[in-house]
């Protein structure tokens, strides 16, 4: 299976902290409104069938459900799924969380979803191309797929790993492996090879303390990519 057991252990150990906005995942909480705004601006979510690949504790899944989407969230970290289900019970939202891989779901529900999201997940699996391919199979013809990941260069190492993990403490140490980051050119090539096309790309920038985030043309560190499945 396309999973890294060390990554699963790491995220299972952090499962109780998913909804602590001042804890280990505060970086994701800070980014979530901006990412949701960008996705919603390109693909209105209301009444759309949406799949969140690598949903973790459900931060993005819940936000999309609040926008009126019919959301399914999948992840291979069992404790994260349990954390998502526990918070769903508190929020009163209707979200279908499943402990399963994107590849397995693609075999069961091909072409079901209007929108597929896969944010901050590609850099945590051994074979990101397999996830990209699964996303392309899961989305409907002319449907949209959204990826968010990190660029691979010296700047991203300094800011995303040395800065975010070891200096500012925005993320737990060891969250990322720089060698697994994907350049926009690499991700674009993988996307095209699945029969999708890239329709938009945006960078995410921040101030020096990473307390404020905004969309930008700078894709040298964090970036998001919108893709559409062709007929």
TrEMBL record:
For this protein, what is the EC number? 2.1.1.222, 2.1.1.64
Question: What residues does S-adenosyl-L-methionine bind to?
Answer: 35, 54, 75, 119
EC primary class: transferase
Which GO MF term does the entry hold, naming one?
Answer: 2-polyprenyl-6-hydroxyphenol methylase activity
| SUPFAM superfamilies per UniProt | S-adenosyl-L-methionine-dependent methyltransferases (SSF53335)
Q: Does the keyword DNA repair apply?
A: no
| CDD domains per UniProt | AdoMet_MTases
**Pathway stated in the Swiss-Prot or TrEMBL entry:** Cofactor biosynthesis; ubiquinone biosynthesis
What biological-process terms (Gene Ontology) are attached? Answer: methylation
- Pfam families with a match to the protein in the record: Methyltransf_23 (PF13489)
Q: Which reaction does it catalyse?
A: a 3-(all-trans-polyprenyl)benzene-1,2-diol + S-adenosyl-L-methionine = a 2-methoxy-6-(all-trans-polyprenyl)phenol + S-adenosyl-L-homocysteine + H(+); a 3-demethylubiquinol + S-adenosyl-L-methionine = a ubiquinol + S-adenosyl-L-homocysteine + H(+)
The alphabetized UniProt keywords are:
Methyltransferase, S-adenosyl-L-methionine, Transferase, Ubiquinone biosynthesis
Q: What the protein does?
A: O-methyltransferase that catalyzes the 2 O-methylation steps in the ubiquinone biosynthetic pathway.
What protein family does this chain belong to? Belongs to the methyltransferase superfamily. UbiG/COQ3 family.
Protein name in the entry: Ubiquinone biosynthesis O-methyltransferase
Q: Which organism does this record belong to?
A: Oxalobacter vibrioformis
Q: Which gene encodes it?
A: ubiG
């Amino acid at each position: 299976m396309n999973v890294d057991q060390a990554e699963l252990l790491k995220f299972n150990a952090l499962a109780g902290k998913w909804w602590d906005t001042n804890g280990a995942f505060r970086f994701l909480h800070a980014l979530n409104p901006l990412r949701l705004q960008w996705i919603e601006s390109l693909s209105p979510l209301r009444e759309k069938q949406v799949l969140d690949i690598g949903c973790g504790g459900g931060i993005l899944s819940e936000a999309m459900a609040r926008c009126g989407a019919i959301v399914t969230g999948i992840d291979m970290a069992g404790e994260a799924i349990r954390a998502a289900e526990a918070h769903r019970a508190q929020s009163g939202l209707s979200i279908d969380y499943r402990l399963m891989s994107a590849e397995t779901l693609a075999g069961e529900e091909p072409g079901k979803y209007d929108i597929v999201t896969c944010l901050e997940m590609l850099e945590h699996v051994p074979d990101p191309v397999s996830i990209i391919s699964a996303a392309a199979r899961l989305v409907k013809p002319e449907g949209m797929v959204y990826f968010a990941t990190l660029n691979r260069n010296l700047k991203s190492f300094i800011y995303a790993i040395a800065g975010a993990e070891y200096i500012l403490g925005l993320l737990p140490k060891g969250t990322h492996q720089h060698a697994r980051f994907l350049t926009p050119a690499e991700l674009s090539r993988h996307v095209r090879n699945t029969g999708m096309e890239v329709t938009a790309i945006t960078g995410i920038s921040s101030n020096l303390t990473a307390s404020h985030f905004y969309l930008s043309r700078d894709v040298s560190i964090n970036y998001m990519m919108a893709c559409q499945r062709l007929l």
